[in-house]
Amino acid sequence: MNLIQSITINKNYPLFVKQNKQQNNTTVLFVPSSDTFTHSETSINFRGNNGNDTSNGRFLKGLEDITDPYSGVKILTFDQMQDISKNISEKPNIRSKLNYLKKFESSMLPVEHSIFKLFEIEASRDKFTTFSEILQNQKPYSMIQLQKEQNTILDKIEKASENISPKNRKIIASELKEGRRRIYKDDDKHPFKRKAFINKLIKHQCEEILDKTEKVILSNRKFEGLEELSEATYRFQNEPLESAKDGKTPVDLIVDLKHKYLPDYNDEYKDIINIARKLPTSNTSVNAFIIKYADRSNQEIGERLLSQSVGTIEHIDADSLGGENEAANFMLTTKARNEARGNLPVKAFIKQYPGIPKYTQKYINDIINNVHQGKLRGYEWYPYLLKDKLAENGINVSIARYRIPPDKAFKKLPPRLHDKYPSYKQYIPERTEPLNIRY
């Protein structure tokens, strides 16, 4: 029996948590990704890079021992990840690497933690094995399981398409046929790629919106909209979907057209794309992780167990949907869950991860501890405003343990924010004065 299969059915090894290039020893230090990403409207749910501004949330970076409000793991700083990368490269064998990584087990997300446990089991049997050899041995079984996971999602898309127009149903059927062919053919040169599949659906969605927008503009003689339509069409046809210009991607421009000219538009692709986004990734599926990293170096595999837990600045209210680039609208979250959320409203994201309210309370407790330790001087008001912002998004947290009263906390509120929070007006001084706050 395959190791993964035996562990899966053995209660003593609950390895795989259900979630809704051969080896070389070259040292590759962890390279951070951007803290920002594009949030598009939910129906056209595409993430790229539109230069979101998170500068007013930088005060959170560098904080240690902070709980991720979206997953409950401990967030790592960039400096910590650099040290981890260096230490992994210096350890002589798999057992010493695993003993070192075990210190950070509380920072491992579910899939990564499952892989870590797999490594521990195999290393206990053979201290001379490597990360890549273990994944290579598991790859054939994982390939079969991943195909099943992928096909389950495609089946759900096919079922959802039964209730849409014949034209769109035919388009989706064609994409499903090609997707299944790629999944089961297992062609290294033309494999099934989740992102490419989703992008095809988004392109069909955008083409329909552009076509309907053009008809509305011409039929109503709203010729002033032709320039907007022309720009959106040109960029959509000639640029990658994630390409940002003046803070807007081609998809963002099409979303704007949809809101302006098609307020009652029935978007038949919306639910289809949302289902497609549930296709397994290395962040959500142990089998997808194994397939993706089986051919990577031991260094890269070791880093990957923790690199998705590095902290990024997250907009609570997505900036693409009007959320402000101010401290009160920022939290520190892991890279993986930041990207997984996209621009979903927090209430919708909680449906995917029901533990968020509990984890968010731990997050704000950790923030309060940092303030009490003097690590967030000048931002003593942050817990108060964060509590209010979370309440607006359906998460009620307590700050009863916070020892700094509002009359002291708000004396450091930046002048640009004085008029934004009338409920705290009585605590905000006419002018900001230096204040030595004792904890």
SSE order and pairing:
Elements: H1 3-9, E1 66-67, E2 74-75, H2 78-90, H3 94-101, H4 110-125, H5 131-160, H6 166-185, H7 194-219, H8 226-238, H9 250-261, H10 269-276, H11 286-293, H12 298-307, E3 311-315, E4 330-334, H13 335-341, H14 346-352, H15 356-372, H16 382-392, H17 406-409
Antiparallel strand pairs: 1-2, 3-4
Helix pairs in contact: 2-12, 5-6, 5-10, 5-11, 6-7, 7-8, 7-9, 7-10, 8-9
Give the integer mean of the pLDDT values.
87
Ends apart, CA distance between termini? 59 Å
Strand percentage lies at under 5%
How would the global form be characterised? flat
Q: What is Rg?
A: 24 Å
Query: Which residues sit in consecutive blocks of at least 5 with pLDDT less than 50?
Result: 1-31, 33-51
SS content category:
mainly alpha
Main β-sheet description = 2 strands, antiparallel
Supply the number of helical segments.
Answer: 17
Helix fraction, binned, reads 40-55%
Spatial arrangement of strands, main beta sheet:
1-2
Number of strands: 4
Order of helices and strands: HEEHHHHHHHHHHHEEHHHHH
Short description:
49% of the residues lie in helices and 3% in strands.
Structure description:
The protein has 439 residues and is mostly helical. It has a domain at 316-427. 49% of the residues lie in helices and 3% in strands. It contains 17 helices and four strands. It has helices at residues 3-9, 78-90, 94-101, 110-125, 131-160, 166-185, 194-219, 226-238, 250-261, 269-276, 286-293, 298-307, 335-341, 346-352, 356-372, 382-392, 406-409; strands spanning 66-67, 74-75, 311-315, 330-334. The chain has a two-stranded antiparallel ribbon. α5 (131-160) runs antiparallel to α6 (166-185), α6 (166-185) packs antiparallel against α7 and α8 (226-238) packs antiparallel against α9 (250-261). The protein is flat, with a radius of gyration of 24 Å. Residues 1-31 and 33-51 have low confidence and may be disordered.
